[in-house]
From TrEMBL:
Species per Swiss-Prot/TrEMBL record: Sporichthya brevicatena
InterPro entries the UniProt entry points to: Cyt_P450, Cyt_P450_B, Cyt_P450_CS, Cyt_P450_sf
UniProt family annotation: Belongs to the cytochrome P450 family.
TM ranges: none
One Pfam family from the record: p450
SUPFAM superfamilies: Cytochrome P450
Protein name: Cytochrome P450
PROSITE patterns, per database record: CYTOCHROME_P450
UniProt keyword terms in alphabetical order: Heme, Iron, Metal-binding, Monooxygenase, Oxidoreductase
Length: 400
């Protein structure tokens, strides 16, 4: 599809993998897209793709799974080599995999881990409190949720540094750093090799107790037949990326906001009941995941003619910051009520994030324990925001 074929739709050039830029960077770019008198844009980047910019359209697209397939979730990769299960599956396969994983992330199970998670958060904060300064991203926001994730998966904490190197190459390289996606593909291969060897080790142990997800995965079946190892590897790859990246990004966004808005910080410290409100607002204003879909057929959607095979970006940041749904939408508001509309940071429809309960709990406990030991702090320098499909701060230097 060429720009000349687009009717009634502004055309932009949306660079999907820009160089890191001072915060708020990409968030501000997507805010500016709303200045166009249209909820739909066409980007000339890569092979070309739609960008939907308001809450209502993004919500409709995420729920209209018969038109927008999840088999592609990156706008610049319409024929992906890697299949991340279950995120990149449509029904009915998606439902079967989701049912296998759901038991690990129920509200009851997540709540049962709260005391353990609180102790861990307190321990991590205690390890940095006397320094007087730290890089929140590397010293806290990554360490805390990643430790929880590795325990849940049954993976060694000693390899966290290596895991982050692989995860960075898989999700965060810019085109200048990896023009042919060679490092990205190599990282995916190394992660799959690691999980292949880990599955072999678990089988050799012949331990019937399913104490972690990797061990439990060995007993997963569909219609009485064991799940194929290749599919297991792709499922573990998806969990790997989600567990190491998303909560860490949101925690860093939260602490950046609190460092630059001392009145909000003081209110939350004085009234801990506000921490869940703060978390919801940070999730709404600063969603880290920007997902994509691929059209399954020709159709009219949001007032434009979509063709089979078209790629479309459904930026959750645009949905959460939509002023038509959220008054004063760019502001984290501790007095906001959910009656104004719910954010889409965890998605919507059948692909709503399974780990939403866990993510919320991790963030609330982490912020509570941080502020028990470090209630006052300041930003040392403006951080850089990077991202393609997943946005996050490259670092966050705080001092106290």
């Amino acid at each position: 599809m060429t720009s000349a074929e687009i009717r009634g739709c502004p055309v932009v050039h949306d660079e999907t993998k820009p160089e890191p830029a001072p915060f708020p960077g990409l968030f501000a770019r997507f805010d500016a897209y709303r200045d166009h008198d249209s909820s739909v844009l066409w980007s000339t980047d890569a092979q070309g793709y739609w960008i939907f910019t308001d809450h209502a359209t993004i919500l409709e697209g995420l729920r209209q799974t018969d038109l927008w397939s999840s088999k592609v979730i990156t706008v610049t990769d319409p024929e992906p080599r890697m299949l991340w299960i279950p995120v990149m599956l449509d029904a009915p396969e998606h439902v079967r995999w989701r049912n296998l994983l759901a038991a690990w992330f129920t509200p009851r199970r997540v709540k049962s881990m709260a005391d353990e998670h609180r102790r861990l958060a307190a321990d991590v904060v205690a390890g940095i409190a006397d320094r007087g300064r730290c890089d929140v991203v590397s010293d806290f926001a990554r360490v805390y949720p990643s430790t929880i994730f590795l325990s849940l998966m049954g993976m060694p904490q000693s390899m966290l540094g290596q895991f982050y190197e692989w995860e960075h190459d898989l999700l965060h390289l810019t085109p200048a750093e990896d023009p042919g996606n060679e490092r990205r593909n190599a990282a995916g291969g190394r992660i799959q090799k690691y999980f292949r060897e880990l599955l072999a080790e678990r089988r050799a142990e012949a331990d019937a107790e399913a104490a972690d997800i990797v061990r439990a995965a060995l007993s997963w079946e569909f219609d009485g037949r064991p799940v194929d190892d290749a599919d297991l590897l792709n499922c573990l790859l998806l969990l790997f990326m989600a567990g190491l990246d998303t909560v860490a990004n949101e925690l860093a966004f939260a602490l950046h906001h609190l460092a630059t808005h001392p009145a909000d910080r003081e209110r939350c410290v004085a009234n801990p009941d506000l921490w869940p409100v703060l978390v919801e607002e940070v999730l709404r204003v600063y969603p880290s995941v920007q997902t994509a879909r691929k059209a399954t057929r020709d159709a009219e959607f949001a007032g434009v003619q979509v063709r089979q095979g078209d790629m479309a970006l459904f930026p959750l940041a645009a949905a959460g910051r939509d002023p038509k749904v959220f008054a004063d939408s760019l502001r984290v508001d501790l007095d906001r009520t959910t009656a104004e509309g719910r954010h889409l940071t965890f998605g919507s429809g059948p692909h709503h994030c399974l780990g939403a309960h866990l993510a919320r709990q991790e963030m609330v406990l982490a912020l509570e324990e941080w502020h028990r030991r470090i209630p006052t702090y300041r930003l040392r320098e403006t951080p850089l925001l990077e991202g393609a499909q997943v946005w996050g701060l490259t670092g966050l230097e705080l001092q106290w």
